[in-house]
# Entry
Amino acid sequence: MKVTIEKISIEKEEEIIARCHNPQANWVNSVKAIQSDGQCISGKYDDQIFNVNLKNIYYFECVDNHSFFYTKEKLFESKLKVYEFEEISKNAMFFKASKSTVVNIKKIKCLKPSYSGRFELTLLNDYKLMVSRLYVHELKQIMGL
Amino acid sequence: MKERILNAVENFFKLYVIVYGFTIMASVVFMYAFGYHNLSREFLLHAMLFSFIALIPVIVFLILPSEIIDGHLILMQIISLIFNELTLMPYGFHIGMWNSVKSGIVMAIIIFIINMITPLVAFGRDALLSSQINKKLDQFRDEEESDE
# Structure
C-alpha cells in the first residue's frame, strides 16, 4: 500500500483521505477511529459529572426514557438519546445491537447464537447482552464479512 | 423492502432444497421398510409439492419485518406444525404416501421432523456467522495489541 504524507500550511485544515478497495477493511476502520480518538461524552456518576472517553465505554443503553452508558465497572447516566449517541460514535467502532442499545465492538469478547432466535453477546467484563438478528448483519458489515 | 423479499426468496429456496432432499430420503427409507420399491417420477413430483406445502408457514416467517423471538418463535413453530399436519396428512393419504395407522404415524413423524429443520437450519447459520465474527474479533484484537 502506498502512503503519502503531505506537509500543509497552518491555515489549512488537516485531513486524511483513504483510497481503498474495501471500505470495511480493518485499516480503514482504524483511520475512521482517529476521528473519534479522544472524543468524550459526559455522564453523571455519584452526583458528579465526568467526561468519559468513547474508548472506555462498553455500551450505551436507553431504558424507560433514561440513558446510561457503562464502562468496565461503572454505570453513568447520560442525557443523550440513542440516535445522538449513534451519531457521536459512528466512527468509533460502535454498532447498534437493538433499538435501545449501542455496543463498542472493541469491547466484545464473543458472540454466540441463542435458542430464543437472537444472539448472545459477551463483553470483555463478562456482561451479557442480547442482540437482535437484524442488527447482527450491521456488525457483519462493519467487520467486513 | 425489495431486498428483504429477495433475501426471503433466496432463503426459502435454500430451505426448500434441504426439505425436499429430506422428504425424498425419509420416504425412500420408510418405503423400503414397509416393502414398497417404486420410486416413480410421479412420486418425486408429489414430494416436490409436499415440501412446498410444508414450507408455506416459513414464507410468513421470512417476510415479516420484525423478528420472531422467544415465546412467539415457539408459537410460530406450533402453528406451523398444526398447519402442516392438517394439510399434509390428507394430501399424503390422497397420493398414497400412507394407508395404515402405522404408516400414518411414520408420516406424522416425518412432518414433525420437517418442521424442526427450519429452526435447526437457522440456528446452524447463526452459529456459522457467530464463529466468523468471533474469528474477525480475535484478528482485530491481535492487530490492536500488535499496534500497541
